[in-house]
Amino acid sequence: MSVQPGTASASPTTRSAHARHQADDPRSVLARPLAATSLLDAVRDLRRDVAATGFPLEIEGTSDARASRARLLDQLDEHLLPRLTELSAPAVVVVAGSTGAGKSTLVNSLVQAEVSQAGVLRPTTRRPVLVHHPLDAELLSHHPVLESVEVVADEHVPRGIALLDAPDLDSVLDSNRESAHRLLEAADLWLFVTTAARYGDALPWKVLESAVERGASIAMVLNRVPSDSLPTVRGDLLARLRKHGLDGSPLFVVPDVGPHEGLLGANVVAPVNRWLTMLAGPDRARTVIGRTLRGSLSALREWVDELATVVQEQADAAAAIAGTIDERLAAPAKAAAESIRDGAVADGPVRARWAELSADGGPVHDLVSSSGKVRGSARTAPARVTSLEPLLVDLNQSAAATLAEIGARTEAALRSSLTADDAPGGSTSIASAWAGGATAARRTRAAELAARGWTAQGPRVVRAMLAARPEDDVVGRELKKLDKRRQQAVRSLGDEGLAAVALAGAAGVKDARRLLVTLLGAAGERIVDDLVRDLAERASDQARLERSAVDELLADPDLADDAASRLRLRLAVLKGLT
């Protein structure tokens, strides 16, 4: 077989090994520069939309979703985005474990220098320490983890890796525990340190399970193992690793050297050091980085899908709450209109004011003679209108107070429906977020505007009715008589005075209604009825206004019908690129 100059023939075995190497190379995830840019942009877009996603309603799974969202953001910020931004950066090896496992001593012994504080006091690791080779400083310079760690450059660290001594997972300090979990998100490799006495503790295994779910690369150091119990402890630990899907993970055993201070002997940590040195090679480091990157991207899809599912459940709960509110609002709105027709506005000051105006000597007492003739003249109309102005003030204030009370009763009914035992999930979140002070102020303003609108409607209705053609069955002499009566009524009270009487009748003062009918005939009845209907509609609107406060809360973009589509779109783009 001839071979062209400058080319080589590769055996199937060589080609297979080369293919495996490409699969482990993180850059193989990003086939070409354009794809690299696309994947990085896709993850950035995903991060933005995850950060913008909220869970306003307290329903089943919401608390877990918020925690999951926070962990996902940590994973994106601390590992995926930095790694995709700088693929050539050293592999970050996070050394983690429980209190007193010997993490700091191990890190110090590996570099043969006291780079991380270690001692008998707990918590021993107060500030995380990142140790790297001096020549790797530039590649690490933009990594976000540097903001929260003490950085040490040491030539004993092989180029291509960076050791990060994390705080205790079970630290008594909340800040230490949170820092430990967050720093683990930055890891390309998790190096867990445990002891012969504590390898069975539940917390580390819970964290390791999370690491497996996210596709992280994991190794373990079993520290302080007495020689006589080594076979038993090692065998049990290997069985646990297999059970948790970690049977392929490297396991290093550090023998118990007894009470000591300072560094462990170089021979004691030699196996770990040799492994790190081998790992630091370009091909090995890329293998670890690529494996963790692929695992993280793969786990990301399921993670985002779960968040999108919870977002959809939030939207479904919001729709159920809206339906319940619709059902519960019908009765208060109907009751509001009925209370108006029953004369709720006339109770109190309005009725008392009318009694004063219609008493002996009052401006409307002798408006109609015993024979039914309208008395008064154009000269008396302005005086009567002036005397009726306090009635208009009372009508406006009473209408506003009645409408505001209708709103308050409606709010109470809606709140009750939101907190009832059979209320849809998430209803209590809406009830809690419903700002009572702001609602009351808005209700009062709306009631005052509606009351002014109603009293202003009085003169318009009167003028429109007086300008309308009389009933078809009123003809001839009766028509002339009715027309003359209306003219006399207008001369006696004017449009404004007639409107005041009409509004009092519509509010529920029966004597005022009867007076207007006497003055205007059937037209007076229609005027009062029109004003009653107008006020009843305003009362129903006032009741429905309370619904707007709930609507504003339900209008949260995170509760929209298509809220989950944003995350699902990012998920589809990510699937297409990976």
In brief:
This protein is an alpha/beta fold.
**Residue share in helices?**
55-70%
Find the structural class using helix and strand composition: alpha/beta
Query: How many individual β-strands?
Result: 7
Mean pLDDT across all amino acids: 83
Strand content: 5-15%
Per DSSP, the total helix count is: 18
Given as residue ranges, the uncertain stretches (5+ residues, pLDDT < 50) are 1-34
What would you call the shape? rod-shaped
Order of helices and strands: HHHEHEHEEHEHEHEHHHHHHHHHH
Radius of gyration: 41 Å
- What is the spatial order of strands in the main beta sheet? 3-2-4-1-5-6-7
How far apart, in Å, are the first and last alpha carbons? Answer: 39 Å
> Biggest sheet, in brief?
7 strands, mixed
What's the structural blueprint in terms of helices and strands?
Layout: H1 12-24, H2 33-52, H3 62-85, E1 91-97, H4 103-111, E2 129-132, H5 137-140, E3 150-153, E4 161-165, H6 174-184, E5 189-195, H7 202-213, E6 217-225, H8 230-243, E7 251-255, H9 270-279, H10 282-341, H11 349-358, H12 381-419, H13 427-433, H14 436-467, H15 476-507, H16 510-520, H17 522-554, H18 563-577
Parallel strand pairs: 1-4, 1-5, 2-3, 5-6, 6-7
Antiparallel strand pairs: 2-4
Helix pairs in contact: 2-3, 2-18, 3-10, 10-12, 10-17, 10-18, 11-12, 12-14, 12-15, 12-17, 14-15, 14-17, 15-16, 15-17, 16-17
What attributes characterize this protein structure?
single chain; 578 residues; alpha/beta; seven-stranded mixed beta sheet; 18 helices; disordered N terminus
